[in-house]
Amino acid sequence: MISPRLVKGGIVTVDPQSGRTLRTIALQYNPDSVKREVQVRAASEPGGDRSQALRITGAAAETITVEAEIDATDRLEFPAEHRTVVEHGIHPDLAALETLVQPTSEALQANDALARSGVLEVLPIEAPLTVFVWGPDRVVPVRITTLSITEDAFDANLNPIRATVSLGMRVLTVDDLGFDHRGGSLFMAHLRSREALAATSGSVPLSMLGIREV
């Protein structure tokens, strides 16, 4: 029997202007759970203006948290095929995740040069567009808000060979990026996908809830 191909969850960074994929990071092992929290952006708080009670001001604020395991054990069984892992352990895997939350050294030096040349207002460094991919039905632009790494085991040179990574993300919407931004387009495609999926769930009769009308 041929096992189905396992789809990996992961992160993609994209140049927001050209749309070119800059880096793709696949999680080594898919987490057992994905925690999501969705907060409604209401026009008024409970007990406030009654005329605004049912109004929503924009897309809901959604946060996503995943915990992933990174382990070099399988790769270390075949050292000839994984020389980088033998030399550095999982440092490269962790470094790839850390680049998601750090400006590049080149960008930092460029901003420093601008400041030294007398530029009065140096703009904050713009990071690439980060996209969280969890299967074809969940491709969303995000901002990494937290990155927590617990290194659990080390080799003889103190290279980490096993770690647990916790990623906290906030979904970016058209309110954050605008409709013309590539990330805004991704969010709208995701929202339409959720609406289409919701439509397939159907609607049960009121009698199933024990009532005849509302």
Q: What is the H-and-E element order?
A: EEEEHHHHEEEHH
Beta fraction:
25-35%
Class by alpha and beta content: alpha+beta
Query: How many discrete domains?
Result: 1
Tell me the number of strands: 7
Q: Summarize model confidence as the mean pLDDT.
A: 91
- Radius of gyration, rounded? 22 Å
| Shape, per Cα inertia axes | globular
Widest sheet, order of strands: 2-1-5-6-7-4-3
Number of H/I helices: 6
Q: How is the main sheet built?
A: 7 strands, antiparallel
Residues in helix, %: 10-25%
Query: Any low-confidence stretches, pLDDT <50, length ≥5?
Result: none
Measure the end-to-end span: 52 Å
Question: Could you explain the architecture of this structure?
Answer:
With 214 residues, the protein is an alpha+beta fold. It has one domain (10-117, 127-196). Helices cover 25% and strands 29% of the residues. The protein has six helices and seven strands; from the N terminus they run E-E-E-E-H-H-H-H-E-E-E-H-H. It has a seven-stranded antiparallel beta sheet with strand order 2-1-5-6-7-4-3. The longest helix has 19 residues, at 182-200. It is globular and about 70 Å long. The mean pLDDT is 91.
Quick description:
The chain is an alpha+beta fold and 214 residues long. It contains 6 helices and 7 strands; from the N terminus they run ββββααααβββαα. The protein has one domain (10-117, 127-196).
